[in-house]
Specification:
9 strands, Aldehyde Dehydrogenase, Chain A, domain 1, two-stranded antiparallel ribbon, 203 residues, alpha/beta, single chain
Length: 203
């Protein structure tokens, strides 16, 4: 039997195993055989990810202008488009979805992220009319903070993009929880986060 690939989690910009070493098998549904080992995050691991996301929000990500955030999202979109076949093969192996669907899906996801990259610096508040001349009333849009996203197994990459794009464009940070039934595509996606210039802890 071939040796299983060992995959790791991305926490605070670092690739790591679960803090207690726990892991589970990733099954290829076309063969019924295990092909990779996935770390099984502990409470401590999740807490560390949330703390890293909060620190990134108070630090480099929160200090960026919306235009800068948009450029990082656009770079992430470009990387996904360039590696769409690679990501598609991983998702097909992990979920059993047809490769003709997963191969183009990353390109479609890239277009989705490009949309939100462009939207990042279009989020604005409003000046509100009031009948008191000495008052100035306005709304100011601010990020919610650290967003938790649980990603279903059946379309890991697309369902990640639908959450990640708007959240990052609005200035939030995000902790993603991959499905235990199909974790590999999301872990593969993680390697493009740093390459896109997104600071550690943001995702």
């Amino acid at each position: 039997m071939a040796e299983l690939e060992t995959l790791q989690m991305l926490i605070d910009g670092q690739w790591c195993a679960a803090s207690d070493g726990a892991a589970f098998d990733c099954i290829d549904p076309s063969t019924g055989l295990a092909w990779a080992r996935i770390p099984e995050a502990t409470y401590a691991d999740v807490n560390r990810a949330v703390e890293a996301a909060a620190a990134a929000l108070d630090g480099p990500w929160g200090a960026m202008t919306p235009t800068q955030r948009g450029k990082h999202l656009a770079r992430l979109a470009d990387l996904l488009a360039a590696h769409s076949e690679e990501i598609g093969r991983i998702e097909t192996r992990d979920t059993g979805k047809m490769f003709k669907e997963t191969a183009w899906q990353a390109t479609y996801i890239a277009e989705y992220l490009h949309f939100f990259a462009g939207a990042a610096d279009k989020i604005s508040g409003d000046t509100l009319p009031i009948d008191k001349p000495e008052m100035f009333v306005f709304t100011n849009r601010e990020p919610l903070g650290v967003i938790a996203a649980v990603i279903p197994w059946n379309s890991q990459m697309f369902l990640t993009a639908t959450k990640l794009g708007p959240a990052l464009a609005a200035g939030n940070t995000m902790v993603l929880k991959a499905s235990e039934h199909a974790s590999a595509p999301l872990l593969a996606f993680g390697k493009f986060i740093a390459e896109a210039g997104i600071p550690p802890g943001v995702v």
